[in-house]
Amino acid sequence: MMTFAKVSRRPEFDRDLKQLLKRYRSLEDDLTVFINTQLVLLHKQKIDNRGIVLINNLGIEEPKIFKPVKFACKSIHGRGAASGIRLTYAYFEEADHIEFIQIYFKADDENEDLEDSRLCCFAPFYASVLKSNA
């Protein structure tokens, strides 16, 4: 089975996940399934099933920031991959490292604004981390 060298979560991701777990108890398991299927399919096997979209125009080339548009949550019955759960992650290709940045439920209005502001903050952060490691 193909796996990643490292999978990590930003503290903001853990905080958001903890809140969502109160409503959607299967989310931890759903995240594991997502990593072992969708992420392996795209990043290891190089098969794009259009379930994950690359976010462009952040001003950084590495890491690449992705936003899955298909994420199945067992706790949300009858929705399948259109569960409304959204997440954002960074993929460091050379290090084979996935870092989860953000998770939210699409129907929560405040999170849509939060998504844009967090991504704008993370792009310079990743750029500075990469420069310091070079």
Tell me the strand percentage band. 15-25%
Q: Order of SSEs, N→C?
A: EHHEEEEH
Largest sheet properties: 5 strands, mixed
Strand order in the largest sheet: 1-5-4-3-2
SS content category: alpha+beta
Keywords:
3 helices; disordered C terminus; alpha+beta; five-stranded mixed sheet; 134 residues; 22% strand; 42% helix; YaeB-like fold
Plain-language structure description:
Helices cover 42% and strands 22% of the residues. The chain is of the alpha+beta class and 134 residues long. The chain has a single domain, classed as YaeB-like fold (2-Layer Sandwich), CATH 3.30.2310.20. A 5-stranded mixed β-sheet has the order 1-5-4-3-2. A hairpin with a 4-residue loop joins strand 4 and strand 5. The longest helix has 25 residues. The radius of gyration is 15 Å and the shape is globular. The N and C termini lie far apart (31 Å). The C terminus is likely disordered.
Give me the secondary-structure topology.
Blueprint: E1 6-9, H1 11-23, H2 27-44, E2 52-54, E3 64-68, E4 85-92, E5 97-105, H3 109-133
Parallel strand pairs: 1-5
Antiparallel strand pairs: 2-3, 3-4, 4-5
Entry summary:
The chain contains three helices and five strands.
